[in-house]
Design a protein that fits this description.
Layout (H helix, E strand, L loop, with lengths): L1 H30 L2 H5 L5 H36 L3 H4 L16 H28 L3 H20 L1 H4 L6 H8 L4 H11 L4 H21 L1
Helix pairs in contact: 1-3, 1-5, 1-6, 1-9, 3-5, 5-6, 5-9, 5-10, 6-9, 8-9
Length: 213
């Protein structure tokens, strides 16, 4: 559970910390009338694609920063004297060697993370592009964020060894699928066939979201 769980944490973290940037990446320029000047030299498609790509790159930097920080902390806890004991942390030297790094599970989580982040970015940038001001866009912002986090509100449904109709629906519905698929992959209840279907739908909706934006 630990290795795939890292991807779930990373997706949640970058979504929470970058969602506001996704929303205001277009609305601020429209409010300041900078967009009108920019669009005299480039097309709207180039402008939006540039913003989406830059947000994705920023997300990758955030992910690498998180991973690097985690590695440094593990190194300090494992190797620097009684550092872990002094701050009342458990001895990780007996836990880390037992983590199973299964390539297939990690690969599935990584693809879900990338496709889910791209889809989320596309939909939020599309919302910002459609609204004239950031204040108006924020009124509809919850319509994207709330479904995205809904699987965490019904977490007990995912803890069953046999997936229920609700968990299957949340796994395939676009806005709830990233966290649902990551949760089920972490808990070991996601079959390969379901993973392929879920990833395919995520990729399709990610392309649609970018086109919509």
């Amino acid at each position: 559970m630990i290795a795939p769980g890292i991807f779930l944490f990373v997706f949640y973290f970058i979504t929470v910390f970058l969602s506001n940037r996704m929303l205001t990446s277009t609305t601020e320029e429209k409010e300041n009338r900078v967009t009108e000047i920019i669009l005299t030299s480039i097309s709207a498609r180039t402008l939006i694609l540039g913003k989406i790509i830059s947000i994705i790159v920023l997300g990758i930097i955030q992910i690498l920063t998180l991973l690097l920080t985690g590695v440094v902390m593990l190194f300090l806890i494992s190797n620097v004297g009684d550092f872990a004991k002094n701050i009342n942390l458990p001895d990780l030297s007996t836990i880390l060697p037992n983590i199973r790094w299964e390539f297939s599970t990690i690969a599935i989580s990584a693809i879900i993370l990338i496709a889910g982040f791209m889809m989320t970015t596309g939909f939020i940038v599309a919302l910002g592009s459609a609204m004239p001001t950031a204040q108006e866009a924020s009124n509809y912002f919850a319509a994207i964020i709330m479904p995205l986090m809904m699987p965490l509100f019904v977490l007990p449904s995912f803890l069953s060894s046999e997936p229920s109709a609700l968990t299957v629906f949340l796994s395939y519905f676009p806005l709830t699928s990233p966290i649902s698929l990551l949760l089920r992959n972490m808990l070991g209840t996601l079959s390969l066939a379901e993973a392929l279907i879920g990833i395919s739908l995520l990729v399709i909706f990610a392309i649609f979201a970018v086109w919509l934006a």
